[in-house]
Design a protein that fits this description.
It is found in: Cell membrane. Its main location: membrane. Its EC number is 7.1.1.8. The chain has 267 residues and is mainly alpha-helical. The chain folds into 2 domains: 112 residues, Cytochrome Bc1 Complex, Chain D, domain 2 (Orthogonal Bundle); 92 residues, Cytochrome c-like domain (Cytochrome Bc1 Complex, Chain D, domain 2, Orthogonal Bundle). Helices cover 57% and strands 1% of the residues. It has a two-stranded antiparallel sheet with strand order 1-2. Strand 1 and strand 2 form a beta hairpin. Helix 7 packs across helix 10. The longest helix is centred in the N-terminal third of the chain and has 36 residues.
């Protein structure tokens, strides 16, 4: 019996052996995963590099998806306006924000998820620009957010706040139309909106706002997007209307509730 116990004790594995096996398994699994990820990343890079589309590709995409409303010759139809003079900037804006292709007829084209990839949108934009030139993409420094924020805020208040709200939170217009919020709008789309005048927005040419003025407005809006809200809830940034409604409902409501409770208690 003593010998049997000794054999069993010699055959036992050390508690550290299991930990060593688990550690080795984790290291091997991690190495395989890292190698696989690197291989997939290299494949994705090559695919992205080779997926650049041409103007001819843009023409085919336009014919298949846009010509029904805008016409094969871009001169428009009863269902859609002419695209002559709109340029690639307007096309990129409308398609990247998902406003086009139009989902349904209505007072205004709503913003939604884009139905095309960035490469496809740029290809269609290039085709439109080549066939019917118009406003093109701005220089990079106009979108860098390095303009005069104070001047931009003043220009925004004078030219844009009556529709988009002082806090750029958007606002209602007539006949079911509305000015969208600018709290998440990119610098490129801010510039495109000022230059091309989408929906109900007017076109701000150089006689109204110079490129530097547009840069200042974009800088002010970007600064506002990145700034930290101080003072608790912003209440939608709608100003005294929402704040007064909040006080009326919750403040007066609380006083009424306390009054009713005191009266019931005394009775």
């Amino acid at each position: 019996m003593a010998r049997e116990k000794k054999r069993r004790s010699n055959g036992r594995r050390s508690p550290l052996a299991a930990a060593a096996l688990i550690g080795a398994g984790l290291m091997i699994t991690g190495a395989v995963y890292a190698g696989t990820s690197a291989a997939f990343a290299a494949t994705d890079t090559q695919t992205a590099a080779s997926s650049t589309l041409t103007v001819d590709d843009g023409e085919k995409l336009f014919t298949a998806n846009c010509a029904t409303c805008h016409g094969l010759d871009l001169q428009g139809t009863p269902n859609g306006p002419s695209l002559y003079g709109v340029g690639e900037l307007a096309v990129e804006f409308q398609m990247s924000t998902g406003r086009m292709p139009l989902q349904m007829q209505g007072p205004q084209a709503p913003q939604k998820e884009p139905q095309f990839t960035e490469d496809q949108i740029l290809a269609i934009s290039s085709f439109v620009q080549e066939s019917a030139p118009g406003p093109t993409f701005p220089e990079d420094h106009l979108l860098d957010g390095g303009g005069d924020v104070a001047n931009g805020a003043e220009l925004f208040r004078v030219n844009c706040a009556m529709c988009h709200n002082v806090a750029a939170a958007g606002g209602a217009l007539t006949e079911g139309k509305y000015a969208p919020a600018l709290t998440e709008t990119s610098a490129l789309h801010m510039y495109a909106a000022m230059v091309t005048g989408p929906q109900n927005m007017p076109v701000f040419g150089d006689m109204n706002l110079s490129d530097e003025d547009k840069r200042d407005i974009i800088s002010a809006l970007l600064y506002q997007q990145q700034s930290v809200q101080i003072g608790g809830f912003s209440l939608g940034s709608l100003g005294p209307v929402s704040e007064g409604l909040f006080v009326w409902i919750f403040g007066i409501g609380a006083l009424v509730a306390i009054t009713v409770w005191i009266t019931a208690k005394s009775n």
